[in-house]
Amino acid sequence: MMKAPHIHKQVFRAPGFGEALARVKEEFGEDAIILSSRELKSGCFRSEVEVVAMPRDASVGWSPPQLSEGQSDGLLERRFRRMGLPAGAAATIASALQSKLGGVPSAMRQAKDALGDVLSEEMVFSGAIASETRAVALVGPTGVGKTTTLAKIAAHEALVKERKVGLISIDGYRIAAAEQLQRYADLIGIPMELAHDAATLGDALRRFEDMELVMIDTAGRSPRDDHAIRKMAECLHGAGEAVEVQLCVTAASTDVELDAICERHMPLAPGRLLITKIDEAVYHGGVIAAQIRTGLPIGYFTTGQRVPEDIEVASARRLSEWLCGEEVRA
Ligand SMILES: Nc1nc2c(ncn2[C@@H]2O[C@H](COP(=O)(O)OP(=O)(O)O)[C@@H](O)[C@H]2O)c(=O)[nH]1
Ligand SMILES: [Mg+2]
């Protein structure tokens, strides 16, 4: 069964910021979280503003920072802010970590285990693809690493777990993309099919009825093409079989990028988050930001270009190691 996405954010548009914020307050109350705001130009004389907001209690496990006595120097919190954590999350984690340690650690290295505990309490990780899940599609912006990641997962499932795996490409627009997936299918020694809409995806899934896992690769013509995203949603969710959609984002995404990516891909009803290119991120707070933005459990981290080695099941312990400055790859 597909999991419904836990995204509660909403877009508010109004002629001015004051009015937009008033609408946010009316909908979500005084302590609503403003995720982004921008001015939209519409016509020569009129302009409109757009505010994206969500209710405070939808921000997945993060409560507003509770500053206790004796915890006022804010050093840890500033450290987490520098790592790219959103303000509320930085305060919550800093205070949880400090109470776990009974003080501020002099070096992040010393906080690794305690931070791992804090992150596993505050974040949601889904583990590898569940054995009862048959069809999984990877979606996300061009170049995030969908095809490479799909090959890594397929290789692991087929060669290590010895499951019957099939690949489907619905990357209809670029021949090169289908060829890239075909090369991986040949290397792993598993079959690949092409599809371009709900009917042909349904056909391909039926031809793969013997397969225990079917991994579906996707791509859009342009990452900004909302029409293409809607067509992809119709395709993935109209093929007559439940397809688990995993949204891929890179670890180095900024808050603003994450916001745009999440908003654009919402029609695809993602049920999982997959974080790519951990090795390229200087700060790893973006992983936490991504979880807060989407509310989705994280399944995998990818850590390099090597197929199939550079992937692991996402965990609080590993994230904690990276936040504390350990090398991403051995
Ligand atoms: N450094 C790094 N590069 C990656 C990772 N995953 C994928 N890439 C690279 O990102 C580029 C785009 O990957 P691709 O799978 O074609 O992206 P897609 O457009 O989303 O399918 C390729 O050069 C990959 O080798 C990763 O975890 N780390
Ligand atoms: Mg691709």
What does this protein structure show overall?
The chain has 330 residues and is an alpha/beta fold. It folds into 3 domains: 10-58; 75-122; 135-323, P-loop containing nucleotide triphosphate hydrolases (Rossmann fold). The protein is 38% helix and 19% strand. An 8-stranded mixed β-sheet has the order 6-5-7-4-8-9-10-11, with helices on both faces. Strands 1-3-2 form a 3-stranded antiparallel β-sheet, with helices on one face. Helix 3 crosses helix 4. The longest helix has 15 residues, at 87-101. It is globular and about 55 Å long. The model is unreliable at 1-7 and 59-72 (pLDDT under 50). The structure holds guanosine-5'-diphosphate and magnesium ion (MG). Magnesium ion (MG) is lined by residues 146-147, 171, 177, 217, 219.
